[in-house]
Design a protein that fits this description.
It contains nine helices and six strands. With about 220 residues, the protein is an alpha/beta fold. It has a six-stranded parallel β-sheet, sandwiched between helices. Strand 4 (about 165-170), helix 8 (about 170-180) and strand 5 (about 185-190) form a beta-alpha-beta unit. Helix 1 crosses helix 2, helix 1 (about 20-30) packs across helix 4 and helix 4 runs parallel beside helix 6. It is globular, with a radius of gyration of 17 Å. Keywords: Hydrolase, Magnesium, Metal-binding.
Length: about 220
């Protein structure tokens, strides 16, 4: 099927940030007295908006609250690590170039904050593929994945009906959000076990497989 809008998740789909951010999140929560393994971070927070971390800590640790500057401090740690360690997902630049040259509209819709999205794209040399009008964050809608709000907002802003959109995702929350929005979705199963992406229309392990899935 040829789509009218390709919606890219950012972390794990365009930039290889998930191992970095989940390791740092698990370490920081543990440091603050909320023991968390990297496996638990992947399971509970991958693809989720920032408020999910606060909500989960409160639920698991008898109403405990993270300090007011937690998000800012965590982002600072992540951004510093990005400068030294972050790389694009293999084939991401080539895929973006092919989508752009095909004339199909495209954008990013991520649970991360706008500053995180832009920092990651800048660091990986991918920012030139996007204007600010093509970058959407859960910040814009107030609710992150698995709610469909972010994807619906992106599609409405880009002027494309949900049924003409396709989402590329690497998290179960993102797959659920895309399906709830009435969009097709393909799951990147390079890091996430395929069974956790079972709701997707299809899976891919190598970005080179994507153009055929998109009908390009």
């Amino acid at each position: 099927m040829r789509y009218d809008l390709v919606i890219f998740d950012n972390d794990g789909v365009l930039v290889d940030s998930e191992p970095i951010s989940n390791r740092l999140l698990a370490d920081y929560l543990t440091e603050l007295g909320f023991p968390t393994t990297i496996e638990e971070s992947y399971r509970d927070y991958m693809g989720a908006a920032a408020h999910t971390v606060h909500d989960t800590v409160a639920e698991r640790f008898d109403g405990a609250r993270l300090h007011d500057s937690f998000d800012e401090d965590f982002h600072a740690r992540v951004f510093a690590a990005f400068q030294e360690q972050l790389t694009p997902v293999p084939g991401a630049a080539e895929l973006l170039k092919q989508v752009r040259e095909s004339g199909v509209r495209y954008c990013v819709a991520s649970s991360a904050h706008h500053a995180w999205i832009r920092t990651a794209l800048d660091t990986c040399g991918l920012s030139g593929f996007f204007t600010e009008e093509q970058l959407f964050s859960a910040q814009d809608v107030g609710r992150g994945k698995p709610a469909p709000d972010l994807f619906l907002h992106a599609a409405a802003t880009m002027g494309v009906p949900p049924e003409r959109c396709v989402v590329l995702e690497d998290s179960p929350l993102g797959v659920a959000a895309a399906r709830a929005a009435g969009m097709d979705v393909y799951g990147h199963a390079a890091l996430t076990p395929p069974e956790r992406l079972a709701g997707a229309n299809g899976l891919y392990r190598d970005t080179a497989e994507v153009p055929a899935l998109l009908g390009l």
